[in-house]
Structures are given as C-alpha cells and as structure tokens.
C-alpha cells in the first residue's frame, strides 16, 4: 500500500491547503496570498520586496514624481490660517511681522529705531532676539481695511502661488520645492533687514517672486517655448518696479535672487549620485550666508554702528 502524500498549506495561513509555490521564495501560497508576476505567482512579501528594489522615477531636477501638489496646498492653508488669526487678533501683525529694529513703549506705541534709546522705550524686532520674524512675516498679509491693497494682498498672492506653485512643485518634488519657498522667503526678509531694518513688512510676495524665478530657470533648462514664460517674467519684473512705490521691493528682489540661485543649483547640478549632495550644499550655503548677513546687521544695529 502506498503512503498518503503530506498535505501542504499556505505559509501565511497554515489551515489553508495549497499546492502553488511562490516563484521567488518557493513557499506555498493560497489564493488570497497570490500576486500575479511575470512568470507564475509571487507571495505578498516578495512583491513588496520587489517594489522596494525598483528604482523610483524622478523628475529632470531629481525630485520624486507626485501628482498632488501637497506642499502648495499646505502653504496656502498656512497663509489663510495666519490671515484668520490676524482678523481675530490685530496684534498678530505687530508680533510676527518682519522687523529688524524698532522701539515700543509700555502702552503699545511703536517708534522708529534709534540707538541709544531712552529707558522708557524697549527694543523690538530682531534686535530683541525675535529671529522668528524672518519667516513668520512671510505668512502674514494686510488686513482688509489697511494699506493700498487690503484683502487683495492675500488674494493676489495666493492666486499666484496656486498657479505657479503647482507647476514648480511638480517639477522639483516636494522637498526641493519647500526648500526653495522657505529660502526665497528668507532671502526677501534678509534684504529688507539690510536696506530698511526699521520698516515693518509682511506678505508672501518674496517667496512667490522666488517661485517665479524658479519657473523661468526651469523653463530654460527644459528647453520650453519661452514666449509665454518671458511674458510672465516681464509682468513679474514690471510689478517689481511698480512695487517700489507701493510695497516692499526689497522683499520682492531678495526672494527673486534667492529663488533664482536655488533653482539654478537644482537645474545645473551634474547628473549622477552626487547631484542631491550638490543641490543640498548650495541650499545650505545660501542659508548660512543669509544667517551670517542677518547676524552681522543686527549686531551693528545693537551697537549703533549703523
């Protein structure tokens, strides 16, 4: 009499009889664990392992391809939330706007910076250690009833961010795009600090000018039809000139220069495994330069050297 053959079961479901093996690891798998492969079937674990070993597609600038502009959505959301905070509490602008050096009294009055200053006043801004203003000011906008633009200030900025930001994020990838946005905002704030340290400024325009510069650099690198891009840049530069009399042209120019430099590093870094390191090195180098310039300027203000 012949002996009865041993019953084989799925390695993940021991109670389920199985007669099919994974073509990769040779373990028995049941129908619930089978995944179609080029030849035969594979188990769930081998499919996951194979997916990890597949090289992920990248954009022309080294970023991961994504179809949803998550960072742009988040940045718009943060700007809108900050604006709502301004509407609920007007002191938010005075507390978080970009300001290099200013003076305030105990009753909430604000005065231009002067050194030395009387004991009845106290310093405010970066000279008082409020370094966060370098970035927080880029998320604030004019209240509805103030300034030349009022609520149009945030509407125009968010409209521009929505239109250009999605294009730039899709090409750069989320990490590079976020670094571009923050460095552009920081570049705008630092140029404001260097030129008009006692002027309070707010708005995402510096960061958006940086994204505009990125759009131009990317288009040239990709060999796109430049007619539409040139018209966009012409409008941006015209607005830069007009803004000299209406808004902070220093913030706009600083963002434009920083964004152009960062994107040039993204676009022209040599291809290969060292490309991310070169791109990161330029970003870190620019960050260090901006920090050094800010520290030197604030130190000079605090000692009355300027």
From TrEMBL:
One of its GO terms (biological process) is proteolysis. The chain crosses the membrane at residues 65-85, 147-165, 177-196, 202-219, 276-296. Gene3D superfamilies: Rhomboid-like. Belongs to the peptidase S54 family. One of its GO terms (cellular component) is membrane. Its main location: membrane. This is Rhomboid family intramembrane serine protease. The keyword ATP-binding does not apply. Residues 129-265 form the Peptidase S54 rhomboid domain. It is a multi-pass membrane protein. One of its GO terms (molecular function) is serine-type endopeptidase activity. The keyword Transmembrane helix applies. It holds the Pfam family Rhomboid. It is found in: Membrane. Keywords: Hydrolase, Membrane, Protease, Transmembrane, Transmembrane helix.
């Amino acid at each position: 009499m012949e002996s009865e053959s041993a019953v084989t079961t799925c390695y993940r479901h021991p109670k389920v009889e199985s007669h099919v093996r994974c073509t990769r690891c040779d373990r028995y798998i049941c129908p619930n664990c089978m995944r179609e492969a080029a030849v035969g079937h594979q188990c769930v674990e081998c499919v996951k392992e194979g997916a990890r070993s597949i090289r992920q597609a990248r954009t022309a600038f080294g970023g991961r391809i994504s179809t949803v502009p998550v960072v742009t959505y988040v940045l718009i959301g943060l700007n809108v939330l900050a604006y709502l905070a301004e509407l609920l509490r007007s002191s938010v602008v005075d507390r978080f706007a970009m300001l290099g050096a200013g003076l305030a009294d105990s009753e909430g009055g604000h005065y231009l910076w002067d050194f030395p200053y009387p004991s009845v006043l106290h310093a405010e801004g970066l000279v008082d250690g409020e370094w966060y203003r370098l970035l927080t000011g880029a998320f604030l906008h004019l209240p509805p009833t103030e300034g030349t633009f009022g609520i149009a200030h945030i509407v125009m900025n968010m409209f521009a961010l929505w239109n250009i930001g999605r294009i730039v994020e899709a090409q750069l990838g989320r990490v590079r795009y976020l670094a571009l946005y923050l460095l552009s905002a920081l570049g705008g704030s630092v140029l404001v600090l260097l030129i008009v340290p006692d002027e309070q400024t707010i708005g995402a325009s510096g960061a958006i000018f940086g994204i505009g510069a990125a759009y131009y650099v990317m288009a040239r690198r990709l060999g796109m039809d430049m007619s539409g891009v040139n018209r966009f840049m012409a409008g941006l530069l015209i607005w830069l000139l007009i803004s000299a009399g209406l808004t902070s042209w220093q913030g706009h120019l600083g963002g434009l220069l920083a964004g152009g430099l960062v994107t040039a590093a993204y676009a022209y870094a040599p291809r290969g495994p060292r490309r991310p390191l070169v791109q990161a090195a330029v970003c870190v180098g620019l960050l260090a330069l901006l920090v050094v310039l800010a520290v030197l300027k604030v130190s000079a203000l605090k000692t009355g050297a300027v």
